[in-house]
Amino acid sequence: MKIKKEVRLLPEKNKSIATILAFALVPLSGLATDIYLPSMPQMGISLNTSESNIQLTLMLFLVSYGLTQIVAGSLLDVYGRYRLSLLALLLFIVASLVIATTDSIWVIYCMRVLHGISVAFIAVAKRTLFVDIYEGAKQKSYLSIMTIVWSVAPIVAPFIGGYLQYGFGWRSNFYVLAFFGSIMLILELIFSGETLKTRKKMEIIAIKNSYSEMLQRKDFRYGLLMLGISYGAVMFYGLSGPFILEHELGYSAIVTGYVSLFLGAGWMTGGFLSKALISKPLVSKLRVANYIQFALVLTMMLSAPFLSNLFTIAIFAFLIHIAAGFTFSVYFPYCLSSFPQYAATAGGLTGGITYVLTSLFSYGVAYLVQANTQFGLAEGYLLLVVGGFFTLILIGNNFKKAQNEQESKLNLQQCNK
User: Fold this and answer.
1) Helix and strand totals (H; E) in the chain
2) What is the pLDDT of residues 271-318, one digit of tens each?
3) DSSP string across 106-131
4) For 119-139, how does the pLDDT look when each residue is reduced to its tens digit (9 = 90+)?
5) Are 105 and 46 in contact (CB under 8 A)?
6) Residue 62 near residue 116, CB atoms below 8 Å
7) Which domains does the chain have, with CATH numbers?
8) H or E stretch including 22?
9) Torsion angle (degrees, nearest 10) of CA 348, 351, 356, 361
10) Does residue 120 contact residue 351 with C-beta atoms inside 8 Å?
């Protein structure tokens, strides 16, 4: 007769420490994607491979991270948070060490997929912790802080990575990731524990039906497209910008890191603007942001033959990232709140598909344009802005219809009660 070993529950006295650990692990996705961006040009030289092959390492992470998020929530509800997150941390450490020591681009591809899968489980588990152990105003407060902490990583990571590249080479980025993962694994083993009180049964049909209902809403589908396009603009620069600054303009990885820090501040500024204008009509403010992006991109293209340098690239990209951050921050809450009856599933589906679309759009445009000048960078931005323009037309046509349908459903539910 086999005796089932019980998972250690999170001790009440360790709630505060476990919360701090969760805040430390939530930004891991941004750290894993952005810390080595300044090193990408040197990686290509060191591994004797093309820019597009190095850029593919980022796309593979984003795709695997996005797809895994879609199913991770359901698995964590069935099997618990603690053991799966520990296993994911261990796999993350192994993948980081393998990347840091290999000379094979194909091995790096496999390990970046493993990175994406493991980080998805860690991120979803740690986001869920705040819902598991807190309630009411405290829960809302911690979730708000979590969003801020998550947004800081993509801003700071390239800045750190630039100095690592300059001082120790591209492999140091992945040694740092492995070291960070190891410290967090030890702390999790000592202080953390299981936070899931009641495990759910795996109900494939129910999950499938909820996904189907959400994806049937046109405004939701087009919203996912808009999220992928707006975040794709940011990642497109991440794929192309370091090569332009370091290969074409001759700047160091440290400069690349500072520029990424500057652009990250632009993305965050867009988020703050979206909160300030939260009461304005959704479609109208999205259109204004899209028109501003059009004007900025066209100005960037027209001025390129006469004025093209580090500062013009950084300033134009900064302003475009403000508009992209604004668009993302406007529509992301809309998608999350469209299905209150499937809150957790909607969050996983929105985040997962957004990352998949981001990877496809950013890598696709980077591969198609092969930007190595300010004009080429503007061309890539233009493709994404045009895509956003047509998506907004579809959103505008379906937004009011979807709102009316939702109001009709709510009225019907109230009548039935």
Assistant:
1) 15, 0
2) 888 878 878 887 888 889 899 999 999 999 999 998 989 999 999 999
3) HHHHHHHHHHHHHHHHHHHHHHHHHH
4) 999 988 887 787 777 777 776
5) no
6) yes
7) 8-201 (1.20.1250.20), 203-417 (1.20.1250.20)
8) helix 15-25
9) 160
10) no
